[in-house]
């Protein structure tokens, strides 16, 4: 059975769009519970300008605190948007540095002020610096399956970024469906093309569930040989820069589904469900994740004896 | 590209669990709108005892009224549970008669008072009678992928029913995930085994989205050669006889996803979305379907000129 790495991105991709700024100790407790449940990697924060995304302003302190309290830095990731952010990431001690480029020129300009080509050159240079500093690096292509502003995104635009990554020796690559436009056949085609463009790369996927295809896309990625699955506890999230966006596929729903086939049965699903329920409780609203509402498919009442069945 | 038949089951599987009994003219308007949007088949009601499921008490009158007003009876289906129900179905003029057996003994007894074997014999006999009366017949296996009471359901129990159908010449078969326990790999395995047990049959699928795998299961069925897709507008529904159950995958989400790959582009998605929105409005609550909330992925604002991008 293929290797599966679970990368929880809710504390970054989910919490960054919430109106309520979550207190650092609350984030720390959630992250520790997710790791204790057996999630491999947790994206704890984003090294973005604190005034731009106040929800992420504590990322440096949060990660440093987690590492100081004994969390393996290799199980923590942080999102880096530029060189300044990389310096902060390196100082925080985070083990995995994530960065990306949007394949949509419009999305890229809205996010960074640069078009895709310029942003690719900058991110490749920054990623190389992170590698040279001895960190693990994951690079991503945002809006790889479509864009909330532009609509369809040409496959060639995605592959050009993938090739730039491969040429720079950046072999951990995530294709992200930022707006939720992907559908399963497209997912299989894009990963097949990407694997040709960057042979030997390790692939990750990141699906938002805006139009209800998130889980189907994730299974298409699984069939395509993707090994790292990014998801968000309770299904938190969205993208502040696209017009319509829902959260990522819910982590506990992914683990629940995978475990049905005997995958990642080492993960403590009940523990995950508990964390996601505490998220719903904290925000005081219903979350998109299913299994935290229904509970897992568990041991059921034994079948009633025939005579009592109608009773 | 393979043939795809869209079978809307919301007016039966969805409305039967609602506390509010929907007035007949309201149902009639929804069904006509669904057909006008290009849905191939609509399950308008259930010929169950009116006292048992009051929401379905108008099924006879509803279907007769639809047929009398010019709706092609071949585009209407009705659920039949026993011989008495069949007589009512035949009198109503409905074109497609649907009936089924649960592969779970406990579920079967709760629903019918009979275990699976006895229920199979009865349903096969009733289905033969419907065929002899010149009606189209679809037979199903409920709880084919797991049971809310019993948990896992042995594949052999499903295949035994499928074989009994095949031996009786009943070649339109639906496998139903009543409780929502299915996952994609299981779906592919079960349809492969079922195709061996009943070579040449036409297959339908019916997935509830209890644990978030509904759409992924539907794509697994598509890859398995299934041609008929049962779904529920706005994602209405559940099963009153299982402990935890959500509605079917939402029709408009299925059509939206299929159209991304160029499938069933003849269906008027905007029309479907409108019907589903009117369902949400009627019940005054948020529905599970995604696309009726977000709107379809449509034409977007043209990309902003570079100079204005940050503005």
Flag low-confidence runs of chain A: 300-311
The CATH superfamily of chain A is identified as Aldolase class I
- Helical region count of chain A? 12
Helix content of chain A: 40-55%
Structural class of chain A: alpha/beta
> Which topology of chain A does CATH recognise?
TIM Barrel
Strand order of the largest sheet of chain A: 1-2-3-4-5-6-7-8
Quaternary status of these chains?
A: homodimer
Rg of chain A, rounded, reads 19 Å
- Pair with the most extensive interface? A-B, 51 and 51 residues
The description of the largest β-sheet of chain A is:
8 strands, parallel, barrel
The pLDDT mean of chain A sits at: 93
Which architecture name of chain A does CATH use?
A: Alpha-Beta Barrel
Features:
homodimer, 311 residues, alpha/beta, TIM Barrel, eight-stranded parallel barrel, 8 strands, globular
Could you explain the architecture of this structure?
The structure is a homodimer of 311-residue chains. With 311 residues, chain A is of the alpha/beta class. Chain A has one domain: Alpha-Beta Barrel (TIM Barrel). In chain A, 41% of the residues lie in helices and 15% in strands. In chain A, helix 7 (155-167) links the parallel strand 5 and strand 6 (172-177). The longest helix of chain A is centred in the middle third of the chain and has 17 residues, at 116-132. The N and C termini of chain A lie far apart (45 Å). Mean pLDDT of chain A is 93; it is low at 300-311. At the A-B interface, helix 5, helix 8, helix 9 and helix 10 of A face helix 5, helix 8, helix 9 and helix 10 of B.
């Amino acid at each position: 059975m293929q290797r599966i790495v679970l990368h929880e991105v809710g504390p970054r991709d989910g919490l960054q769009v919430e109106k309520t700024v979550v207190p650092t100790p609350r984030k720390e407790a959630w992250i520790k519970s997710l790791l204790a449940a057996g999630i491999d990697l947790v994206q704890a924060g984003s090294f973005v300008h604190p005034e731009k995304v106040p929800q992420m302003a504590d990322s440096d302190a949060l990660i440093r605190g987690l590492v100081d309290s004994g969390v393996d830095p290799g199980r923590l990731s942080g999102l880096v948007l530029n060189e300044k952010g990389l310096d902060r990431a390196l100082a925080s001690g985070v083990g995995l540095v994530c960065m990306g480029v949007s394949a949509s020129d419009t999305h890229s300009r809205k996010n960074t002020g640069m078009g895709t080509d310029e942003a690719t050159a900058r991110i490749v240079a920054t990623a190389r610096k992170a590698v040279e500093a001895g960190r693990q690096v994951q690079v991503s292509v945002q809006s790889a399956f479509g864009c909330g502003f532009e609509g369809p995104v040409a496959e060639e635009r995605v592959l050009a970024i993938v090739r730039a990554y491969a040429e720079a020796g950046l072999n951990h690559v995530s294709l992200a469906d930022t707006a939720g436009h992907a559908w399963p056949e497209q997912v299989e085609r894009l990963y097949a093309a990407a694997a040709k463009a960057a042979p030997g790369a390790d692939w990750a996927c990141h699906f938002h569930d805006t139009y209800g295809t998130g889980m189907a896309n994730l299974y298409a990625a699984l069939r395509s040989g993707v090994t790292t699955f990014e998801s968000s506890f309770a299904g938190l999230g969205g993208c502040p820069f696209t017009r319509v966006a829902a959260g990522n596929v819910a982590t506990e729903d992914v683990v629940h589904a995978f475990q049905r086939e005997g995958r990642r049965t080492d993960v403590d699903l009940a523990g995950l469900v508990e964390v996601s329920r505490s998220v719903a409780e904290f925000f005081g609203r219903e979350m998109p994740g299913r299994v935290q509402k229904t509970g897992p498919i568990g041991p059921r009442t034994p079948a009633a004896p025939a005579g009592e069945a109608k009773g």
